[in-house]
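During the no-cost extension, the postdoctoral fellow (Dr. R.K.) reprocessed legacy sequence entries with the updated structure-token encoder. One reprocessed record is reproduced below for audit purposes.
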Amino acid sequence: MKITQYITLILLLQLITLLNGCGEKLKQKGSPEYIKEIQQWHQKREDRLRKENGWLNLVGLYWLKEGENIFGSAKDNDIKFPANAPEHIGILTLNDSIVTISVNEGVKVLHDSEEVKTMILGNDLDENTTILKSGTLRWYIIKRGEKYGVRLRDLKSPLIKEFKGIDIFPINEDWKFNARFIRYDSPKKVEIPTIIGTTEEDLAPGYLSFSFDGKEYKLVALQSSNGFFIIFADQTSGEETYGAGRFLYTDEPDSNGNVILDFNKAYNPPCAFTRFATCPLPPKRNYLHLKVLAGEKKYGEGHLG
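Re-encoded structure tokens follow.
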């Protein structure tokens, strides 16, 4: 290839890349203020994933058996931590619904900067979760139904360095709805399946109703501290978006029962990033028969179990 032809090819490729980038920007729809708001929201969302209590540093989930569970990195442990953990840390004992730890002599495990020898551990559903530390590792007890497990984090997890962000659909204000909150006569029990095969019950105070292309859609709303929590799936699930659905929060309804439902803030559950999470799945009534082309797209291959 002659040098002039090579230069022409390079310039052509650069032009195509530039036009493609402009095309992506042209797909965005909304006021500059709104687009900036969503961009900032998404950036904060990615920043939270990288933090110590984010989802990118999970490296283990170990279910406890009743009685003693010997743990550490050595092969002869009941629970085998990664190689950067001490070989024999100690014993986790599950007695009915109480979990205690006993740390072996010569092993340094900390809780709130204090060295631990033995103590009762509060789980993640208690008011105060007991978080234990050894080197870059952090672990605590989780409760799921009648099951108790150890959730393990590593602050130096490779996934944190590998994480390059999450693709999103072009921001489009058309996916921001003024929904109506319809309150039930009394809160209804809703069965919430989980990715680990259990089913949990939650109370729904009502549902959200919104219209798209002349059709009405409904989403069961779970109460959250400052509004509603929505777990939903749609016709992009398993294709453009994560197969096990997405999450979405709203504020409380106003005095007229109106709620802003903004699918540009729909995001992936933790299980999209790690197989060590225990995500809730959408209840049957929250499968939308439309393509929600807004919010986060799927990340990598995802983890469906």
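Residues 58-156 form a domain with the Tumour Suppressor Smad4 fold (CATH 2.60.200.20). The longest strand covers residues 176-193. The remaining legacy entries will be reprocessed before the final report is submitted.
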